[in-house]
């Protein structure tokens, strides 16, 4: 695939003729609901070009509310699928979710479902207290692994994904020992182990999100390590790209110094943020899908711009109340740039947060560059 950036006066029919294809095919691969309304600055995938293909793995997270239609569209592109999530408590208990439909859909398309275990508290938010108990209380830890194996057997999961965040810095070593036990428990029984880690740029990076995540330990004990390379631009933060390529590359450079590249999955966001301007600390941005971001640009007549440093598209608009907004999202260009980064560092693949909506340009770019490994 090649990428064409729409100019003023372009039509889908004219672009199709230029590339020797038809407008219906362009509309299909770009998921255009209204092909007659192109937005200046938007990136369109067009047939053509060649790629030095290799096989990669793709992981994705989704909530139980995901629709059957979205799962059917998404599963052909996945190696691993993580229903989100089983919440562990401080005693080692697991709060179940309605995941039978998701597991069945994964196996039906040769994707491997992973039991995703988190330290999310019952009232929301990751809990350092829960993590501390699971890492240091042998009774709680024994109960946790007993419950994990019960779910693995009962639900026929392929393995486990630990997504444990906001760990207290003083629990760094106990977290690593917990991962060692997880490997010792899971691997002899034939189960797969993956983990998700915060996006660190150096070993010295401090903070509740980062200090306790020992990259080398994750690389030593886990089969795959997902780097959560997103949320630079986040709900309560100032407007910016969610996954600016320059920042993502800094994390990847550190990661490959600590973890074998063939174990690393780079995180890619499948969502956009709409901020009201001027930014006021404490005000939340609205999370929307990438498809919705493009539709909104059409509705408000915005011209899509592209930040060359972040390698990410954005645009400004005024709402009906005269309030200014800025939207940062992902398009074919930004996805292709991330895919090239994956190739440059020879990583195992990437991980999508989340696939609650199907964004065809993302999958089409990936499919044009790589073959997807199936389990």
Task: Explain the overall architecture.
- This protein has 375 residues and is of the alpha/beta class.
- The chain has twelve helices and 18 strands.
- The protein has helices at residues 12-18, 23-29, 68-74, 100-108, 128-136, 138-155, 172-186, 215-221, 245-258, 290-300, 332-344, 360-369, and strands at 2-5, 43-46, 54-62, 80-83, 86-88, 94-95, 112-118, 159-163, 192-197, 224-227, 264-269, 272-276, 286-288, 305-307, 312-318, 324-328, 349-353, 370-372.
- The strands form three sheets. It has an eight-stranded parallel beta barrel with strand order 3-4-7-8-9-10-11-17, surrounded by six helices.
- The radius of gyration is 21 Å and the shape is globular.
- The protein starts with a strand and ends with a strand.
Question: Could you outline the blueprint of secondary structure elements for this entry?
Answer:
Layout: E1 2-5, H1 12-18, H2 23-29, E2 43-46, E3 54-62, H3 68-74, E4 80-83, E5 86-88, E6 94-95, H4 100-108, E7 112-118, H5 128-136, H6 138-155, E8 159-163, H7 172-186, E9 192-197, H8 215-221, E10 224-227, H9 245-258, E11 264-269, E12 272-276, E13 286-288, H10 290-300, E14 305-307, E15 312-318, E16 324-328, H11 332-344, E17 349-353, H12 360-369, E18 370-372
Parallel strand pairs: 3-4, 3-17, 3-18, 4-7, 5-7, 7-8, 8-9, 9-10, 10-11, 11-17
Antiparallel strand pairs: 1-2, 5-6, 12-13, 12-16, 14-15, 15-16
Helix pairs in contact: 1-2, 5-6, 5-7, 7-8, 11-12
């Amino acid at each position: 695939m090649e990428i064409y950036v729409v100019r003023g006066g372009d039509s889908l029919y004219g672009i199709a003729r230029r590339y020797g294809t038809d407008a219906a095919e362009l509309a299909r691969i770009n998921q255009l609901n209204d092909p007659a309304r192109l937005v200046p600055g938007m990136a369109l995938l067009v047939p053509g070009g060649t790629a030095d293909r290799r096989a990669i793995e793709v992981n994705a997270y989704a909530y139980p509310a995901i629709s059957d239609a979205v799962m059917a569209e998404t599963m052909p592109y996945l190696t691993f699928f993580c229903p989100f999530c089983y919440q562990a408590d401080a005693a080692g208990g697991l709060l179940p979710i309605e995941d039978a439909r998701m597991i069945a859909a994964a196996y039906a398309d040769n994707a491997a479902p992973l039991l995703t275990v988190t330290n999310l508290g019952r009232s929301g938010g990751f809990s350092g207290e829960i993590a501390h108990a699971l890492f240091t209380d042998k009774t709680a830890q024994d109960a946790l692994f007993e419950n994990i194996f019960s779910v693995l057997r009962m639900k026929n999961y392929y393995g486990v994904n630990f997504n444990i965040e906001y760990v207290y810095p003083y629990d760094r070593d106990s977290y690593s020992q917990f991962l060692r036990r997880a490997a010792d428990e899971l691997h002899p029984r034939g189960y797969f182990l993956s983990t998700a880690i915060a996006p660190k740029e150096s070993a010295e990076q401090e903070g509740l999100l980062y200090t306790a995540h020992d990259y080398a330990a994750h690389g030593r004990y886990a089969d795959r390590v997902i780097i959560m390379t997103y949320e630079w631009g986040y709900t309560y933060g100032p407007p910016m790209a969610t996954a600016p390529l320059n920042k993502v590359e800094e994390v990847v450079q550190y990661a490959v110094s600590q973890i074998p590249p063939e174990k690393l999955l780079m995180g890619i966001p499948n969502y956009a943020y709409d901020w009201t301007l001027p930014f006021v600390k404490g005000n939340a941005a609205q999370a929307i899908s990438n498809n919705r971001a493009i539709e909104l640009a059409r509705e408000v007549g915005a011209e899509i711009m592209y930040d060359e440093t972040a390698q990410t598209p954005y645009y400004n608009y005024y709402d009906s109340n005269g309030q200014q907004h800025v939207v940062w999202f992902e398009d074919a260009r930004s996805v292709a740039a991330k895919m090239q980064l994956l190739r440059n560092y020879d990583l195992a693949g990437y991980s999508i947060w989340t696939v609650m909506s199907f964004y065809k340009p993302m999958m089409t770019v990936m499919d044009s560059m790589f073959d997807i490994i199936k389990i």
